[in-house]
Amino acid sequence: MTEPDVDVAARSMLGSRIRQARERARLSTRELAGRASVSAGFISQLENGKCGVSVGVLKRISAAVGVSAADLLSDEAPVTRPVLRAPERPLFSCDSGLQKLLLLRPPIQQLEVYEGTFDVGGSTGPEPYAHDNAQELFYVLTGHIEISIASETHILGPRDSVEYLSSVPHRAVNIGATPAQAMWITAHLTPPIDANPLSTPPTHDMKD
User: Dihedral (C-alpha) 192, 196, 202, 203: value to the nearest 10 degrees?
Assistant: First the structure.
C-alpha cells in the first residue's frame, strides 16, 4: 500500500484554504488574481491543489484576501485578522469637508465601519445618495450633525444614533460651530459593490 504524497496533500490543503478565504472576502478568482498580480488560471490551479506557490506570491494573495500567509499555512483556522494600527488606517477625504477613516482591513466582508470628522459646515456631499443593500447605523461621537434620510431630517448630538437602509438616499452635515465626529457601522445584506474600498479613488459615492 503506497503512502499519500505529502506535497500533494499540503497543496490540496493550502488550495482549499485560499478558496475559503477568497470566498469569505467575496472575491472572484479574476479579482483575486488581479490584486495578487497573477493569472486567474494560476489561482484556479492553486485552489485545486495542482501547483505550488512561492512565498512572495502567497503573501500577495494573503494580503488580497485579508489574512496572513501564516494563517493560510497553519493547521488551525485563524480567529483574528492582523492588528490595524492607528497610523495605518486608510483615510478618505472629500472636498465637502469630511475625512473618513476605515476601521477594518480591506477587503470589506459583511461588516464595514468608518470614523469620520466633519469640518464646520462639512458634509457627505452636496446631495443625498444611496448605495449597496445594507443596514446602517450612524452614531455621533462629538458635535451636532443633521442627517436627512429620504423625507426625514434629524439633528443628532453626542451619543445619538439613527438606523436606516443604505439603499435609501441619505446625507449628513455638521450644523454646529465646531468640528464633529461620527461613526458609520454597516452590516451588508448582500456583498458590497467593491469589497476593497482602496481599489478606486474616493468619491462622494463612497461616503456615507
Answer: -20
Residue owning grid cell 482591513: 105
Packed helices 6-24 and 55-65: angle between N→C axes, nearest 10 degrees: 30
Taking Cα atoms as reference points, which of 32, 205, 17, 6 lies closest to residue 124?
Answer: 205
Prediction pTM value: 0.65
- Report d(CA 146, CA 44) in Å as an integer: 49
CA 93/CA 96 separation, integer angstroms: 9
Side chain identity, residue 142: T
* Average pLDDT of adjacent 10-residue blocks, the chain of 208 residues: 58 88 84 92 92 89 83 69 80 87 78 94 94 92 98 98 96 98 89 61 44
**Whole-number Å distance between alpha carbons of 25 and 71:** 15
CB atoms < 10 A from the CB of 136, how many? 22
